[in-house]
TrEMBL record:
<dbReference type="InterPro" id="IPR004107">
    <property type="entry name" value="Integrase_SAM-like_N"/>
</dbReference>
<dbReference type="InterPro" id="IPR050090">
    <property type="entry name" value="Tyrosine_recombinase_XerCD"/>
</dbReference>
<dbReference type="InterPro" id="IPR013762">
    <property type="entry name" value="Integrase-like_cat_sf"/>
</dbReference>
<keyword id="KW-0229">DNA integration</keyword>
<keyword id="KW-0233">DNA recombination</keyword>
<protein>
    <recommendedName>
        <fullName>Tyr recombinase domain-containing protein</fullName>
    </recommendedName>
</protein>
<dbReference type="Pfam" id="PF00589">
    <property type="entry name" value="Phage_integrase"/>
</dbReference>
<dbReference type="Pfam" id="PF13495">
    <property type="entry name" value="Phage_int_SAM_4"/>
</dbReference>
<dbReference type="GO" id="GO:0006310">
    <property type="term" value="P:DNA recombination"/>
</dbReference>
<keyword id="KW-0238">DNA-binding</keyword>
<dbReference type="InterPro" id="IPR002104">
    <property type="entry name" value="Integrase_catalytic"/>
</dbReference>
<dbReference type="InterPro" id="IPR011010">
    <property type="entry name" value="DNA_brk_join_enz"/>
</dbReference>
<dbReference type="GO" id="GO:0015074">
    <property type="term" value="P:DNA integration"/>
</dbReference>
<dbReference type="InterPro" id="IPR010998">
    <property type="entry name" value="Integrase_recombinase_N"/>
</dbReference>
<dbReference type="GO" id="GO:0003677">
    <property type="term" value="F:DNA binding"/>
</dbReference>
<feature type="domain" description="Tyr recombinase">
    <location>
        <begin position="127"/>
        <end position="314"/>
    </location>
</feature>
Amino acid sequence: MTTDSQFDAAGPTVLSDADVELLSGLSAPTLRAFAAALRMSSLAEKTQLTYVERVHDFLRWLDAARHPAALTTTAGLNGAAAAYITGLQDRAVADSTLNVSLAALDALGQWLGLGSISAPRAVVDQITPKTLDQRQHSALLRAAAARPLRDYALISVALDAGPRQSELAALNIADIELDPAAGRGRATLTSPNKTQRQVPLGPGCVAVLNVLLADRRRTPDAESRRQRALFVGSMRPTRLSERSIDRIVREVGRSANPPMEISPSTLRNTCEARLLAAGRNLDEVATLMGQQQPNLTRIRALVPPPQMELDFTV
């Protein structure tokens, strides 16, 4: 039986021509197995597809590159990932492509049991996920307060709880528990793979939701009482789609002073950065954000701003 110490003592593995030939054929089966593993994860279907596309591009690049240990050792994967990302930078690809490529490779490394990749600091600095600073945060809330109550509540929940876009759309009235007198509350979020988690809501968000629910109690709803959506259309009382939520968030951002181009993911990033800045345990943050485990590449990239207190007054 071979022990770990025997592996360590053996030193670096010398690959024969036959080994290299076997490894060069790993791309297709690796991609199929990786895609199957993603389908079992809590990632949104769109994110799964994007990760598969980016890993496919990496594996195609790997076939022509000289990194035979990329799929077998941590050092090999890190070296290949650094070279691949550098190549993307040389091609002047968008920051968003660099960001998702790193996230996809990080997921690949963790799935292979090789751990998170160590991205070059220069790359991490370049692809910092978009977040709102304190000034932008306040400007966005002022803009939201000038719109219908539903929009103000939607922005409040997105900033306070950091749900995915699909989780915002899936929220039901029954998923919200409030204790307005104590300024406490919590929301039950349902992830794309139907798992649920409970997240706390701060006093400001509780106050906004309390007003929204009081208004909703006098509004008819087209859905059953058990499945009454929290966020519904202004013309018809039916559940807002993910596309409508994206449109509302972008409209509120553009109506702010100064205007800003944002998406639901910007508000989710801002929430996560605030939690990290508050010194929350990384595992706790991952749980609150609905992640299976801390994503160290993403955490390094967020570079959280100073802690922000949510203030929903205008």
